[in-house]
Amino acid sequence: MSRRDYDYLFKMVLVGDSGVGKSCLLLRFADDTFSESYISTIGVDFRFKTLTVDGKIVKLQIWDTAGQERFRTITSAYYRGSDGVMLVFDKTSRDSFDHIPDWLDEINKYSESSSKVIIGNKQDSSEHIQVDEETGKKFAENRHMHYIETSALSGNQVSLAFEIMARELISKKSVTEQKGNKLSTVKPKKNIGCCQQL
Fold first, then answer.
1. Contact 21, 152 (CB under 8 A)
2. d(CA 120, CA 107)
3. Which of these, 37, 56, 62, 181, has the minimum number of CB atoms within 10 Å of its CB?
4. Integer Cα distance of 87 and 185 in angstroms
């Protein structure tokens, strides 16, 4: 069996309303391309992308889920076992931002312990902005999450968003492993007769 070509493998999911740019973000990050005529995702799509974060090779399995209500029963199955979730809204659509709490509730039904980052996409459309950066930041901070604004069109901060998520996942994994190591080094007390001495 060949040696793994990565240090970490994480499953990530992109969620949010239809049309907020989830597929375009994934396309920009994975292939460094952008398409104005991208068709709405039907069900799910996914890509693998490997990146280096703080000297560690991280392989991301990224699932792009459809935002339409009619696909919700299909897409929710992909939330299970996800290490990280990117909740994406369109900065030019207040409704898509207002729906983020609903997406959070939906995700938490299946994967409450996953790390979460909130993405304000389409920052390039400055003349049509309905959700300013301060509003997005405050919302994320109140929920102890990272917030970052991106533009799939220009590519601005797209890679950074995925790096922030990867860094958080590595940190979380390290803490979990350290706790596991501490637990495994605790020696059980000796039994004396029928009772255990504490």
1. yes
2. 18
3. 37
4. 38
- 134 located within any domain: yes
pLDDT tens-digit readout, 50-107 = 999 999 999 999 998 865 554 455 556 778 889 999 999 999 999 999 999 999 999 9
**Which CATH number is 142's domain given?**
3.40.50.300
Q: How many domains does the chain have?
A: 1
Q: How far apart are CA 12 and CA 85, in angstroms?
A: 6
Alpha-carbon gap, residue 159 to 173, rounded angstroms: 21
Decide if 48 is inside a domain: yes
- Give the torsion sign (CA, 36, 120, 89, 54): positive
Predicted model pTM? 0.82
Residue 185 lies in a domain: yes
- For residues 51 and 64, is the Cβ–Cβ distance under 8 A? no
